[in-house]
Design brief:
Immunoglobulin-like; 19% helix; 3-stranded antiparallel sheet; elongated; alpha+beta; 150 residues; 1 helix; single chain; 2 domains; 5-stranded antiparallel sheet
Amino acid sequence: QLDEAGQPVTPVESKVDYANVDYETLAVGSVAHNTVMEEVYFCTNPGDRPGECSPRDDKRIVFNHFYYPGWRAYLLDGMHGKPVQELPIIPEEEGVLGRMTVPIPPVGEGYILLEYGSTPPRTVGGWISLGSLLLALLALAAGRVLRMTP
């Protein structure tokens, strides 16, 4: 498949909008992703040596994905680590892309997990669906039993 300029279309490898990254003050890279999560490494004010980062509180990561209430962002305690702080997600209010922006906490370096989790309506809907399926199977089984008895 080719794009408008006739170049091959590359597959999406990250939800991060790298076009919105100021590489002089922020290093960002996806370390793991699938359809419902993305783990991103960040380093603010990167120095000349790897891992040389200094805190700042004005950096954000923009994700090219529609915002829905089930999305959550967390600061992790290391790569593939446990959440230590929930971070706010700012839905895009202008434009038509509905993207999400996550402010980076002023820690200098770390990992952010963006994941799509459950919400109360989704949980209730799941239980209702499961109950409906069980009732349908029970009705089907009861119908078979009634047809078999003379």
